[in-house]
Amino acid sequence: MQHYFNSLADHVNGRLQGEERFLMNFGAEDSDFVRLNHAQVRQAGSVRQRIVSIDLIAGQRHAPGMVCLSGDAELDRDRLSRLVEELRGKLAFLPEDPYLLYSTDVRSTEHHAENQLLPAHEAVAQIQDAAKGLDLVGLYASGGIHSGFANSFGQRNWFSSYSFNFDFSAYHHGDKAVKADYAGFRWDPAGFAAKMSSVREQFSYLTREARTIKPGHYRVYLAPAAVWDLMSTLAWGGFGLKDHRTKQTTLIRMTEEGAKLHPTITLMENVKEGVAAAFNGAGFIKPDQTTIIERGAFKNCLASARSAKEYGVPTNGASEAETPDSLDLAAGEIPREEILSRLGTGLYVNNLHYLNYSDRPACRMTGMTRFATFWVENGSIAAPVNVMRFDETIYRVLGENLIGLTRERDFVLDSQTYFARSTSSQRVPGALVEGFHFTL
Amino acid sequence: MLDKLEERFRRVAPKADFCSLRFVEEKTQTLSVRQNVVQPATSAVDIGVMITVVEGSGMGYAGTSDLSEDGLRRAADQAHQWARRTAGRTVVDFAKVPMPRPEGEYRSPVRTPWESISLAEKIEILRAESASIAVDPRIVDWEASLSQVELETLFLTADGGRAVQRFSYLIPYMSATANQGAETQTRSLGGRGLCRQGGLEVLDAIHYRNSGPRLAAEALELLTAPNCPSGQMDVILAPDQMILQIHESIGHPLELDRILGDERNYAGTSFVTMDMFGSYRYGSDLLNITYDPTRTEQFASYGFDDDGLKAERQFIIRNGILERPLGGITSQARAGVEGVANSRATSWNRPPIDRMANLNLEPGTSSLEEMIAAVERGIFMRTNVSWSIDDSRNKFQFGCEWGQLIENGKLTQVVKKPNYRGISATFWRNLKMVGRESTFEVLGTPNCGKGEPNQVIRVGHASPTCLFTQVDVFGGE
Q1: Which residues 411-440 of B have a C-beta within 8 angstroms of A?
Q2: N or C terminus of chain B with fewer C-beta within 10 Å?
Q3: Is residue B359 located within the same domain as residue B422?
Q4: Residue B186's pLDDT band (boundaries 50, 70, 90)?
Q5: pLDDT computed for residue A204 by the predictor
Q6: Quick check: A368 contacting B, CB < 8 Å?
Q7: Which domains does chain A carry?
Q8: How many residue pairs bridge chain A and chain B with CB atoms within 8 Å of each other?
Q9: In this structure, are B88 and B215 located in the same domain?
Q10: Which ipTM was obtained for this model?
Q11: Residue B64 and residue B112 in one domain
């Protein structure tokens, strides 16, 4: 695949005229998707896709274009030739772009991975065996993911990964379920069995009669998967340089009024510990770590090449969207085994659902509890809790009302598959919070 | 191209109980001017096929961007293999699903084609709007953009079915953002809801030109406006909020695959159960909801869905009573009920699932003035900005860009950050007045997410302005 990509890049390079330059990004995957409901297959299939985008540059004018490739070298060279011609035709009608920025410092990199995946139908057979007696629903996704970057300066970057992600939930009754995820690079039957045992263990709590709590303020433990949801929402408009400079950041109270989060909050884009490619679409290599929030205070934005040029600051290799790929929330000091006793009486929230901002400048988010949420009394799980809506600002959840974060963290591989399988991840602890506001 | 594909498909289709090919070629162009600077003019061509095979009770699919005969053969073999491997292990007996054999064509109505004016002229439209927005130093960001999509699909079945559909979409957008200190407010032209099928004539239909100054003025007005008050009161929702209300609290809960449990791990389930169809009071007598693929200018009109089922208008809720779910041929066979032609896929690389298409609230008889006059204390809300709902599609909370107090039958003070929350199962029963045709707008959304693997899809909603009573309203911090 890498050879195929390099040969296409060489071909595009050969089509350039005069002072033209090009940036080329490549994305490919060979994926198997098996969707399950009631522990039976709902839909099963495979997807083979190859996509190339080229940004053709002449001085400060440029025209980006994307095309799907067939995988056949001759056919694809022809498609790329036509794309270059089409983009060249547009260039004459486009004005100069004052914010065009791309890397001219050649830094070629390679990341290869060994394909240790189990054939998908074998993994699914194991899943169906293990799920006997369970009302299991979810998606098994696996296969190779490849991305590449090339430019006319000779830079070549390559990233390959072979991974699987089995994202599922097991339903006990109604909407009472245990949500789990088994993901990685090599299927380990023992690891999977342990995951399924843990799911069955949690079922015992769901047999108890569900409790409905009244709206109000409660002491809560947000498990790492719930913190993942909060962080994912915060990443939507919280960290990007463009959002900050146009005053649209949801953390505007930190930058304009000096508001701070709890001093235990340190948040970074930790490329070194993530599983995503370390280069961006303009050819810049991401630093190993970029600290976004340090001890509760805002420190650095994620700056794409375009925003960096617009606002006159260095880029830190962020994507155009200026969202993190490998978010890392520092661990706290609460041992996980003490969570129930430290929670005392309150709610143990495993998962949140459908978060959105209800007041962006105040960084106030609303959302729901989902799956296994429990009422805890005097340090023991008493009953599952019916779903509740919350509405809270991040300044209270991770600020004045934060009691602490757990010492242990979960490494969560993003299971999203919009357009292509995600390579994003987060490393997050759980959070013990006082006075969490439930509204409905 | 289509003829060649058909020839290749006829040669490679395996001997199986059912086999189909779905070809998709989607060409997208996006132009944008932000802060009076022309942004990169992007173009994209997404092209590929999905082959689906049913063998016995099993079903398999394979998507590929390799359209050569070898490429199609590989995909057909892969799909056939999945069908064999899943036989006896599936949640539905695919042998019992009566797959359609479509014949026909569909084409979007286009009066002024995208290519009828030059690239420079299109950029000039956006430049003019952008320049008209920067009227005050407190306007800190602004943008005018157009996305245009040409989509061609071919659906073939091995037993001779053939449907060709050609769509043209336009997705206009414009916004103005104002800031003062730690307060920032944005007004947009209907969010991204002013999307339609058609050509550049859509710009006239939605009054795109010269909207910039109004958006800027409203963003500035919101900056200094007080927060929306809290309490239980009447609410009038404009069409660009009604579409979200319909989408989240009627559309999704009535998708049959959710009711059957397919989405329980991702998008969620539904508070609606099968026994409710035919008798459940979803809303007041004024609530009439249709699945309407025949309104050709609307975003999600089509002739056939992605399983080849012919699309026809149907009442979903009539006079407040729930009649039928939004489920395509597979879900209909599983549940043993009639549905609609709404089995749809985001592209060639994802399999079809039940999706809303055009889901509309039919006009009533009230004028906007009559609705405002009927409110003693309430809020008029416009343009969705925040949306969240539980996994059963019941407990919701939505927010709008713009609010205006209604006091003693008159619109008064502008308020910022208007939010409201409620429960789907009871909210629609408090529908008190439904606007007449003059308040009705044809809108939609380009980005509805659902499914495993994940898919975004185009959805159309049309609605009049509506009045609801006893709504729990609140504002910002």
Answers
A1: 417, 419, 421, 423
A2: N
A3: yes
A4: very high
A5: 87
A6: yes
A7: 2-199 (3.30.2290.10), 216-262+326-438 (no CATH)
A8: 249
A9: yes
A10: 0.96
A11: yes
CATH number of residue B96's parent domain: 3.30.2290.10
Pick A94's closest partner by Cβ from B38, B65, B453. Answer: B38
- Among the candidates B192, B223, B254, a domain finishes at B223
- Distance between A138 CA and the closest CA of chain B, angstroms: 5
Residue B452: which of A35, A86, A175 has the nearest Cβ? Answer: A35
- Please name the member of A87, A137, A367 whose beta carbon is closest to the beta carbon of B388: A367
**One domain, residues B134 and B260:** no
Count, in order, helices (H) and strands (E) of chain A. 10, 18
Q: Which domain covers residue B247, as residue numbers?
A: 231-272+345-474
Tell me whether residue B288 is in a domain: no
Q: What's the whole-number average pLDDT of chain B?
A: 97
Cβ of residue B1 closer than 8 Å to a chain A Cβ: no
The answer to whether residue B301 sits within a structural domain is no
B93 and B240 in a single domain? The answer is: no
Residue B322 included in any domain: no
Phi–psi pair at B183, nearest 5 degrees: -110, 130
Residue B435 belongs to a domain = yes
Query: B355 and B435, same structural domain?
Result: yes
Q: Average pLDDT of B115-129?
A: 97
B118 and B250 belong to one structural domain: no
pLDDT confidence of residue A183: 96
Asked if B222 reaches chain A (Cβ–Cβ under 8 Å), the answer is no
Distance from CA of A236 to the nearest CA of B (A): 13
* CB contact B38 to A (< 8 Å): yes
Q: Which of B166, B191, B223 is the last residue of a domain?
A: B223
The answer to whether A37 contacts B86, with C-beta atoms less than 8 Å apart, is no
Instruction: Tell whether A128 lies on the interface with B, counting CB pairs under 8 A.
Output: yes
Q: Could you say which residues of chain A have pLDDT below 50? A: none
Q: Does the CB of B226 have a partner CB in chain A at under 8 Å?
A: no
Rounded to a whole number, what is the distance in Å from the CA of B286 to chain A's nearest CA? 27
Instruction: Tell whether B93 lies on the interface with A, counting CB pairs under 8 A.
Output: no
- Per-residue pLDDT band at B133 (split at 50, 70, 90): very high
Kindly state whether residues B357 and B385 are assigned to the same domain: yes
pLDDT value of position A375: 98
A90 touches chain B (CB under 8 A): yes
CA distance A325 to chain B (A): 18
Q: A65 and B64 in contact by Cβ < 8 A?
A: no
Q: Quick: pLDDT tens for A403-417.
A: 999 999 999 999 999
- How many domains in chain B? 2
How far away is chain B from the Cα of A119, in angstroms, using its nearest Cα?
12
Query: What was the pLDDT predicted at B222?
Result: 98
Strand (E) or helix (H) holding A198: helix A189-206
User: Can you tell me the distance from the alpha carbon of B426 to that of B472, in angstroms, rounded to the nearest whole number?
Assistant: 12
Q: What is the pLDDT of residue A136?
A: 98
